Protein: Sodium:proton antiporter
Organism: Deinococcus roseus
Amino acid sequence: MQLLDAFAVLVTLTALFAYLNARFFKLPPTIGVTLVGLIASVLIFLLQGLGLNLVPVARDLLAHIDFNTFLMQGILSFLLFAGALGVDVDVLRKYRTPVLVLAVFSTLISTFLIGGLTYLLLNVFGLSVPFLYTLLFGALISPTDPIAVLDLLKRAKVPPKLESIIAGESLFNDGVGVVVFSVIAALAFGGGHGAEHAFGGADILKLFLQEAIGGLVFGGVIGYLAFLMLRSIDSYIPELLITVALVMGGYALARELHVSGPLAMVAAGLIIGQQGRRDAMSDVTRHHVDQFWEMIDQLLNAVLFVLIGLEILLLDLQGISLPLMLATVPVVVLSRYLSVGFPVLLLKKRYTLSRYTTRILTWGGLRGGIAIALALSIPPADSERNLLLVLTYVVVVFSILVQGLTVMPLIRKGQQAAMKVTP
């Protein structure tokens, strides 16, 4: 099967799963297609017992669409840019301190909490895994997935303040999480220079600054250049093409410059979404640009979450007990609660955050495809890769299906609480 054929099958399955969800399940699109994808995967396994072996065919399809490459070097740039376009920068600027604290410090705290607790958990189950690897798991699972979170916010209609904090955190902690993962991976795998290479504190700081700060600065520069180009013309087709080139060319150039592509796309998207839409686009252009990027966002979201549902076909569950998989979920949720709870407690009075803020940030902090993609980026020859991948997949599925379906009542309570404390 060729790559184009595999992608055609994937898009066809996405359309079918979206139809089944809309016709029978009537769940939110991302949750619905993930669930249908999981059901389809289970049915494929069951049919194998009846003599209809579709597992090799399905695995061949997934093998031709490498999840890590498809997301991290393909559609992620589009999804992050589209998500940033819809963020109110004025409100985000007002609450920049909570966003920064949650995106950076909470992600770091969560990484070490999950890493430490997972290390202890694995030892309880008789598995000896180096601490750097559990820390790697903490880094890839700590960031909330902006793709899943932003879709949730669109449906929830939360107050602008809370929406900006949650959206800003998910957009920025994604890039921060990728950088932290890269740093820990460099320590675990020798930074690509062989075992003899000493990856020290100066290297860590340099890598972090280059990736994170470099990504934000680079995204700001290309975003502003695109803004100047948009402002100099008034024709929606070339202007639309400029935004597409900004995403595709900017993300590719970010990789070549070794700066964070995700953070660059967020910075560029915020500039185009605020200054570009306001000062450089006519009403006609703004309408077409908004429609195009909303369509891209919804289409790629659906394809991504179908792929998440089907990825279970590639997992090797041998030697990994169900109690261990289930026990990993509360470890991640508890670490999330503690890592966001402390900053919210410190900032509560200054920003009039309700007592439900921590609960909403915890339960609404969904994980998604980025965590799976990072787990898949661990070298295949590494003996710990499959364990980390299985644990990641379990947390992601729980996050999407359980948290995603039950967070709405919690958000409604949070809205009521916010209305009581907000002047």
About this structure: Confidence is low (pLDDT under 50) at residues 192-197. Residues 109 and 339 are 6 Å apart (CA to CA).
